[in-house]
UniProtKB/TrEMBL annotation:
It comes from the Bacteria. This is Integral membrane protein. The chain crosses the membrane at residues 6-22, 34-51, 57-80. Keywords: Membrane, Transmembrane, Transmembrane helix.
Amino acid sequence: MFTWIFWILAIWFVVNVIWMWFDLDNEQLQKTFAWINVAAVIIGFWVFYGATSVASLATWFQVLNWVNVVLAAIQFYFGYRRANGSSHKTA
């Protein structure tokens, strides 16, 4: 289980970063990816601390979990940056 979830999360991370990077202005997409990343982070930490770890992947799994936390924060920023209606426009 540990290895399978690691590889699923790693593939999701790569797809997520590539898709996010090429569509930064799509706020709905950023919000969707951010919330999916929250689920991925919860699952990732749950598996990391709950399943029998594989020594060679343990460090990388932990790094992947924390990088997903940072990525989710960035996606929340891009998804909700104009949500409060305070977009600044100049004349």
